[in-house]
Amino acid sequence: CFLLESIKPAARCAGSRQANVEGVAKLHLRNKIMNNLILDYMEQTAARLPEKIAFADEQTEVSFSALVRRAQSVAAALIPLVPPRSVVGFYMDKGVETVVGFMGAVYAGCAYSQLNLRHPAPRVRAMLETLDTPIVVTNRAHLAQLEDINPPARILLIEELEETPLDEDALSVVRAQMIDADPLYVNFTSGSTGTPKGVVVCHRNVCEFIPCFAETFAITEKDVLANQAPFDFDVSVKDIYSGLFTGARVEIVPTAYFTNPTKLMDFLCDRGATLMVWAVSALCFLTTMNALAYKTPTTLRAILFSGEVMPIKHLHKLQKYLPDVQYVNLYGPTEITCNCTYYVVDREFAENESLPIGVPFKNERILLLTPDGGETVKPGEIGELCVSGTSVALGYYKDAERTAACFTQNPLNHAYLEPIYRTGDLVKVNERGEMVYVSRKDFQIKHMGHRIELSEIEVQMTAVPGVERALCAYLEDKGKILAFYTGEADKAAITAALREVLPGYMIPHLFMQVEAMPLNKNGKIDRAALLSQYAAAKAAKKEARHG
Fold first, then answer.
1. Which of 98-102, 328-332, 454-458 has the weakest average pLDDT?
2. Dihedral sign of CA atoms 102, 525, 214, 384 in order
3. Which of 13, 153, 287, 350 is the most exposed place for a label (fewest CB within 10 A)?
C-alpha cells in the first residue's frame, strides 16, 4: 500500500514521463522492488556474471554487464519518444545488436516486435499499422531496404540510439511503474485465415515459463545454446531468455548457414554448442543434406524440437550420429508462451509412429475438450487441446474479435473466471496414457462419410522408402486428397505401401512430387505455397494439352 500511494501522485501529473523523477527514483532504489520482470533476470545475472559472454553472433559478442549498459542507453533515447506499454518495431536481422535493441525497448517500458526482413513490403507495412508504433528501429545495413517500404513510423538507427547518454532518473521512473502484466513482445503468426495475428506476451508469461524450462532441462551458465530460430518466431524466446535467466551463452547462428551445411556444422562445432532448441524443419535440413556425415558437434547434450511433427525417419538419422544426446519433443503454440508440454524420447519408435507430445510443464493445465465443451478423458478419444495458467498470452494486438474467439472461459469452470487458450489442435490419449498430436482442427476432413486426419496419412507416407517429407491437402471442390512429397519414390510405390497400412478411403487420389518443401517465416511447411505450385502445374499441363 505504501508503494501504491507513493507512486499515485506522480502518475497524476501531466504525462507519466514528467512525473516526480527524484521522488519516485529514490523510492524505487530504496525498496529494490523485484516486480518479476525480465529486467530483473538480466540484472541479477549481470551482477553475478558481469564479464561472461551473454550473446555472440558471427561478427561480435556482448557480456551481460555490457548488454545492460548498452540497452539502457537505447532506452534513454526511446523514453522521450515512445509512450509506455506501446510496441517498438525492429527491422534488422537477428544478432547481438538486435538483442540490445529489444532490451532497450523493455527498459523504456515498451514491448518489442521483430519484423521479418524477407517479408514483402505490404505485409511489413500492415504489421506496423497494426502495432500503430511511432518508432521502427533498424541498422545501417538495412536502412535503405526499410526506407523503400515507406513505413508509417519514424525510423531510428540502433547505432545512434546506443550513443545516447544514460538517464538513470528517467529509467527509474519507468521501472517503478512497470508491472509483470505489461507486454514484453508481440510476435506475428500467420493464422488460418492468412491475415497475420500479433500475439501479445507479457513479462509474467515469460518469467513463469523460462525458469521451469531451464530447470526441466538442466540449463546452466555452462551451456551454450545454438540459436536457430529467427527472432520473430517464438522458438527463439527460449534461447534468448534461458540465456538471460541462467547465464548460458547464446550463439546466434547466421541465417545464411541454413543453406550451407558445411558452414553450419563448422559453426556448431567451433562454438561448442551444448543445446539446440530448433524447429523440426531445421533439423530435417541437417539430415536431408547429410550434414552430420561431414561433422558432428561432440559437445551436444540435448536437442529439443518443435513447430511440426518430427518424422521418425529423420529422428533415427539424428540418433545414428548423435546416440548419446537427449531428444525432446516440445509442443505449444505462440499463444501460450512457447510450449506447454514436452516428451523426452525414451524408447524406440517405428517409422509409421508419431511421437507423443508428453506431459505439461509445471503450472500449466491441459484440457482436452469435446466439440460440445465436455472433457475428453478416455483413451483413443480425440479432443481439442486447451491450455490454462499463467503462460496464456494477453491475446491478439488490436484484434478483439479473434482474441474473443480463441481466448475463452474454461467451459468446465462455472465458479470463477479462468481464461483458457483454445489451440485448435486435436489430440488423443494413447494406450500408454500419453498425449499424441493428431491434427489441426481445420485439417480434419470428412471424406466418403469418414472423418480423416490428414496428418495420419502424412505419417504413413514418410515411412515409405524413398519419401523424405509429406504433406496432404483436401480439394473440397473435387472431393479428393492431394499428397505432396519430396524424395525418389513414385506414385505407384507410395500407393502400394499406403494400401498396406491405411483403409482405401484414406489413400490420396493425387500426388505431386516437389524438389523441396517451401517453408513459411516460422520454418513450417507453407501449405498455401504448395497448393499454388499444384495449381500452376495443372494450368501449364492444360495449356500444353490445348496448345
1. 454-458
2. positive
3. 350
Is residue 74 within 8 A of residue 66, CB to CB? The reply is: no
User: What is the residue whose three cell numbers read 478411403?
Assistant: 505
15 pLDDT tier (thresholds 50, 70, 90):
very low
Say whether 501 sits in a helix, a strand or coil: coil
Find, among 219, 414, 388, the residue nearest to 302 by Cα: 219
Mean pLDDT along residues 224-238: 95
Exposed/middle/buried for 292, CB within 10 Å: 0-12, 13-18, 19+? middle
Q: d(Cα 357, Cα 289) in Å, to the nearest integer? A: 27
Give the model's pLDDT for residue 547.
66
Q: Is residue 342 over pLDDT 70?
A: yes
Region of residue 218 (phi > 0: left; psi between -120 and 50: alpha; otherwise: beta): left
Cell numbers that stand for 299 in this block? 559437445
Give the contacts of 137 (CB within 8 A, at least 6 positions apart).
88, 89, 90, 91, 92, 101, 105, 155, 156, 157, 158, 161
The residues, any chain, with a CB within 8 Å of residue 507's CB and separated by 6 or more, are 481, 495, 498, 499
Integer Cα distance of 6 and 402 in angstroms:
38
Residue with cell 523504456: 108
Mean pLDDT of 47-69: 98
Q: Please, are residues 110 and 79 in contact by the beta-carbon 8 Å criterion?
A: no
* Eight-state DSSP code of residue 326: E
Residue 232's CB: how many other CB atoms inside 10 A? 22
Q: What value does the mean pLDDT of the chain take?
A: 90
3-state secondary structure of 87: strand
Rounded CA-CA distance 309/318 in Å is 15
% of the chain beyond a pLDDT of 90: 78
Give me the pLDDT at residue 373, please.
Answer: 84
* 3-state DSSP assignment of residue 270: helix
DSSP secondary structure string for all residues of 105-122: HHHTT-EEEEPPTTS-HH
> Residues with Cβ < 8 Å from 537, sequence gap 6 or more?
512
CA triple 483-488-494, angle to 5 deg? 45
CA atoms of 97 and 13, how far apart (whole Å)? 35
